[in-house]
Design brief:
292 residues, alpha/beta, Rossmann fold, five-stranded parallel beta sheet, three-stranded antiparallel beta sheet, lipoprotein, membrane, transmembrane helix
Length: 292
């Protein structure tokens, strides 16, 4: 509110409300130095009108702010999703990873005579299957997809794409007689739909005992496989896909230390694919440069 200087015995009262990026003039008028009874009545009516409009505007402003906060929260994933879904670099990294994994598998098999008891254990989501269409849909609807409350419906009705290089690698392992196990934390109740998706994408060895979905921990499922097979390679987009040591609540800094301590595994029997869309790292604190 701003009060202009008195002009010829009058005060000019100019009241404005800033709403969003718009300035709405609500009341602008002249207040007499000695108003009559009728003028006082008119000013009271204007005051009541202003009060009503201001109340509505304040509630609208609060709703607008709440919606903006929600939009902002969902939009925090946008850059990562753009990279994961649209960048040529991510496709190059995925192809590069699978090409290297195939070379490494060929090297391992050269030293193994009997392949029928060898196994490769692979995660599904963002390792073999590209689910970014669901994540983008949720973000555009201002919904935080890391609540995972839309995932079950996607497993039933969705049509994920293959990660570049995944099918060629899996087909190579299959031709060489290696057992392929799909170990994922997808819903067990949706197993028939997940198996249908994998078959529809033309992947081999999609059998009930080779598709192990969420029930026990991934480590327990891996140990179940080890009772009958020798696991020669583990692949995933998240470190717990490789070992239970990364399934902890000590934060990303601790896991980075574990990566360093276990560096001999990476590129040998542990293969990691990039995922910029989600993961434990999304809650990590960033480190800024502070100029001295």
């Amino acid at each position: 509110m701003g009060v202009l200087p008195a002009v010829a015995g009058y005060n000019v009262c100019h009241i404005s409300l800033v709403y969003g990026c718009h300035i709405v003039v609500i009341l602008s008028g002249y207040l007499l130095a000695h108003p009559t009874h009728n003028e006082v009545h008119i000013m009271k009516k204007h005051a009541l009108l202003f009060s009503a409009i201001a109340t509505v505007a304040l509630f609208s402003s609060a709703a607008f702010a709440a919606k903006s906060a929600n939009v902002c929260q969902a939009k925090t994933y946008e850059m990562g999703l753009r990279y994961q879904q649209q960048s040529a670099e991510i496709a190059a990294l995925q192809l590069q990873t699978y090409h290297f994994a195939q070379q490494r598998l060929a090297e391992i098999l050269r030293h193994k005579k009997d392949h029928h008891k060898l196994a490769v254990v692979m995660d599904l989501d963002e390792t073999i299957l590209d689910n970014t269409a669901l994540l983008v849909r949720d973000m555009q609807n201002c919904h935080d997809y890391t609540h995972w409350d839309t995932w079950s419906d996607w497993e039933v009705k969705g049509h994920p794409r293959l990660i570049p290089g995944a099918k060629a690698f899996i087909e190579y392992a299959n031709r060489r007689g290696v057992n392929i196990f799909y170990v994922s934390d997808r819903y067990k109740k949706n197993k028939k739909y997940t198996m249908h998706t994998l078959k529809e994408l033309g992947l081999p060895q999609v059998k009930d005992d080779h598709v192990l979905l969420y029930s026990t921990s991934k480590q327990q499922r891996r140990e179940h496989i080890r009772k009958h097979y020798h696991i020669i390679m583990l692949m995933g987009d998240s470190l717990p896909d490789l070992s239970a040591i990364f399934k902890n609540k000590k934060g990303t800094h601790y896991n980075r230390e574990l990566v360093e301590k276990n560096r001999k595994h990476f590129g040998r029997d542990w293969i990691v694919l990039p995922n910029a869309a989600y993961g434990a790292w999304t809650k990590a604190k960033l480190r800024a440069w502070h100029e001295q």
